[in-house]
Amino acid sequence: MAQKYYFFNSAPGDERLHQASDFARYFGNVLTSGLFSLDNQIGLRVQSDGTDMRSYVEIGKALIKGFAYENDADEYLLHDLPEVTNNRIDRVVLRLDLRNQNRFIKVFVKSGVADAAPVPPELQRDNFIYELSLAKILVRANTSTINPADITDERLDEQLCGIVNSMITVPTSQFQDDWNAWYAANIPKYESEWQDFIDGLAGATFVQTVNGTAPDVDGNVEVAIDTTAIDAELDAMSAQIGILSDKTDDLKMVKSSKDANGIFTTLTYRRKSDDSLFATSVLSGGTSPNYTTRTVTYYEQNGTTVRKAVAYTLSYDSDGMLVSEV
Predict the structure, then answer these.
(1) Alpha carbon distances (Å) from 271 to 111, 277, 300
(2) Which of 243, 281, 237 is nearest to 263 (CA)?
(3) DSSP strand pairing (46-47 vs 54-57)
(4) Alpha-carbon span 261 to 271, nearest angstrom
(5) For the chain, is the Cβ count within 10 Å smaller at the N or the C terminus?
(6) What per-residue confidence (pLDDT) applies to 210?
(7) Other beta carbons less than 10 A from residue 42's beta carbon
(8) 32 close to 165: Cβ distance less than 8 angstroms
(9) Contact 156, 126 (CB under 8 A)
């Protein structure tokens, strides 16, 4: 079957059955394996009381290959007794086991090998078993307790465990390319128009009066000239020059308004020099992730007055990929 779709309710004569693997496949495509960070707390920290050969795993949640795990009470684990002469390093792992006889996610002690220079055991990661390391523990020779100081937290190591993150990305480079193309295409035009205007004023003298007057004693006549149109043109060109003066290297960008598909629908650009608002890019229309409109609004140097707003129409191919923006 080339096409897959889920999840839908059954209807009379049309039963829709979904396997656990279907749900795992979906979540595994949008979220990485790791521990959930809730209220700035990661959870599943490994501790010990220091009174026996047990360690314990605190409460917390995790996701491995799309399968969920939750621990709502301290889970104690017993370590093997050490050798008399050599230390060893154990690991406390969170193990996904997809084999038919198991089908679970549980915490285990993975015992190391005693040695003069011990190393922690390798994690198993294959088609059936996938392990995350929560901590490694130095089990000292000829002792009967697990010392809390000998526990090394490995939860934040992305190679061994890590935090659950979204695998969905926004192609902000495409927006940057669009901005760079506009900048490169328009700067020669505006610079040329500005220079032509300046050259056209060479040698001209303007005297602004409320009313024309008779010639003075030297025969000169003051002519009343309405410069309103000229002033407006100067203001417009100054605004265009202002746009060009804001180079992308002088801007910082913040993403916001993330939708249900993990797409940030609003990009806000601010000037690094004074944190004033330079521009916003807002996605709207259509249905996420295939928005149909992107509106870019530019602001004056004060960061509040709208300088210019441009709306682009977004088009997609049959695979839902963005193919044009005009």
Answers:
(1) 55, 7, 11
(2) 281
(3) antiparallel
(4) 29
(5) N
(6) 46
(7) 20
(8) yes
(9) no
At residue 319, the pLDDT reads 79
Alpha-carbon dihedral sign for residues 206, 209, 214, 218: negative
Distance CA 322, CA 16 (A): 32
pLDDT digits (tens, 9 = 90+) for 43-84: 999 999 999 999 999 999 999 999 999 999 999 999 999 999
* CA dist., res. 92 & res. 136, Å (int): 6
Cβ neighbours, 10 Å, residue 78: 11
Query: Which class in CATH covers the domain with range 21-153?
Result: mainly beta
Residue entry with tokens 């004060």: 302
The residue type found at 76 is Y
Closest by CA to 187, choosing from 146, 245, 248, is 245
Q: What is the pTM of this model?
A: 0.51
The Cα–Cα gap between 108 and 75 comes to: 10
Give residue limits of the domains in the chain: 21-153, 168-183+229-326
Report the run of H or E that residue 172 belongs to, with start and end.
helix 172-200
The hierarchical CATH code for the domain 168-183+229-326 is 2.40.128
Residue 231 token pair: 């002033």
Q: Which two tokens stand for residue 290?
A: 């295939």
216 CB burial (10 A radius; 0-12, 13-18, 19+): exposed
Q: Residue 107 carries which side chain, given as an amino acid letter?
A: V
User: What's at 195, amino acid-wise?
Assistant: Q
Contact 93, 133 (CB under 8 A): yes
**DSSP output for 225-294:** ---HHHHHHHHHHHHHHHHHHS-GGGEEEEEEEE-TTS-EEEEEEEETTT--EEEEEEEEEEETTEEEEE
| CA 22 to mean position of chain CA atoms | 26
Distance, CA of 183 to CA of 253 (rounded, Å): 17
d(CA 323, CA 316): 5
Classify 63 as helix, strand or coil: strand
